[in-house]
Amino acid sequence: MLPGLRRLLQAPALACLLLMLLALPLAAPSCPMLCTCYSSPPTVSCQANNFSSVPLSLPPSTQRLFLQNNLIRTLRPGTFGSNLLTLWLFSNNLSTIYPGTFRHLQALEELDLGDNRHLRSLEPDTFQGLERLQSLHLYRCQLSSLPGNIFRGLVSLQYLYLQENSLLHLQGKKEKGKSLLCSWRMDARKMEPVIVIHCYYY
């Protein structure tokens, strides 16, 4: 190393500057391309951008994630951060939701999967782990039946929307001594077989 450079690096002012740089906090995660991010509450909006998959590198602090009106086909485990409270995925091309996709989203309160016309079936443990989920939207899909225990563990569920499917019946199993009770009504205008508008445990 040149003597002049060595003396420069040993200067007290430069040493202080280096210490200050090391003390700076790491940069906040950047917003995914084509998305809009807000800080309070932490929100990422990626709607209507023709995404074929969930954008990578979502900020881990995200509480609200809006992905509606895209072309997303598949959801896999590890895609979403555990701080999510609201997740909108309506009006996509969803056909497959792998088991465990939502399992770690223990804070999630609202999940909208509606208007996915290629979504024909769901696995029994699709919603496992969503103990705080209050509102679940599955309207306007191609569901003709649901596993009898698919809502097992959803102890906070208040609203379940299944209109404009081809469901003929839904049986709720007991959860910790409680049974799942759903309110049903017919849509006379569209002649849909069943609409579930409210579910709760009793």
From TrEMBL:
It comes from Pongo abelii (Sumatran orangutan). This is Reticulon 4 receptor like 2. It comes from the Eukaryota. SMART domains: LRR_TYP. The gene is RTN4RL2. It holds the Pfam family LRR_8. Residues 1-27 form the signal peptide. GO terms for cellular component: extracellular matrix; extracellular space. Keywords: Leucine-rich repeat, Repeat, Signal. One of its GO terms (molecular function) is signaling receptor activity.
